[in-house]
Design brief:
With about 180 residues, the chain is α+β, with helices and mostly antiparallel strands. Helices cover about 55% and strands about 15% of the residues. The chain is built from nine helices and four strands, in the order αααααββαββααα. It has helices at about 10-20, 25-30, 40-55, 55-70, 75-90, 110, 145-155, 160-165, 170-175, and strands at about 95, 100, 115-125, 130-140. Strands 1-2 form a two-stranded antiparallel sheet. A hairpin with a 2-residue loop joins β1 (about 95) and β2. α1 crosses α4 (about 55-70). The longest helix is centred in the middle third of the chain and has 18 residues, at about 55-70. The N and C termini lie far apart (about 65 Å).
Length: about 180
């Protein structure tokens, strides 16, 4: 049976799978195409880059991502929702007055914003010589709000807009400074 034009050969499929697993373009190319093993990076890099940009390679990578997404139930919407919990949780919701709430009493969005909980119990011997808990120190570490906000901003393209605003040419900037408008 003849191969379809958009069908990958074994070397291309190997390249795609290696890229999908997180290998660099150069390493993936050298592994998939053994003849390239001794080539210089300056020779391999453009070939790997061109191959990676090809429509059929991109289509296969998209197919693999969709398969993983379907199998795991992880969607862009779900990831953004999780980032939302991290970015916009309110630390005040951890407390009931001056006391830390039980973890089961926390709103879901606040519980999801917690990265780590460490509990240290201080003990002392009572009058009978038995060890008793006298205090409990609980340390909570939340995920970085700044990191989560930054990831959301990148996803929404907020930095692109900011970069476009900053890319004024010298004449436009000079005119603005001199009050001449644009």
């Amino acid at each position: 049976m003849a191969k379809q034009p958009d069908e990958l050969n074994l070397q291309e499929e190997s390249f795609v799978l290696l890229i999908f697993q997180g290998h660099s373009q150069i390493d993936a190319y050298r592994t998939a195409f053994p003849k390239a093993a001794k080539w210089k990076d300056t020779t391999v890099s453009p070939k790997a880059s061109t191959l990676l940009k090809s429509d059929k390679i991109q289509a296969r990578l998209t197919e693999l991502r969709e398969q993983v997404q379907e199998a795991t139930g992880i969607t862009a919407e779900r990831v953004l929702k999780e980032l939302e919990h991290m970015a916009f949780s309110n630390i005040q919701e951890l407390f009931d007055g001056h006391s830390l709430k039980e973890i089961s009493e926390l709103p879901e969005n606040v519980a999801r914003s917690i990265a780590e909980i460490n509990v240290h119990r201080l003990k002392a011997d009572d009058s009978d010589g038995k060890s008793q808990n006298v205090a409990e120190i609980v340390k909570l570490k939340q995920y970085s709000k700044l990191d989560a906000i930054e990831k959301i901003a990148k996803h929404l393209g907020l930095y692109e807009k900011d970069n476009k605003q900053r890319s004024l040419d010298v004449d436009t900037l000079a005119n603005r400074l001199l009050g001449k408008g644009e």
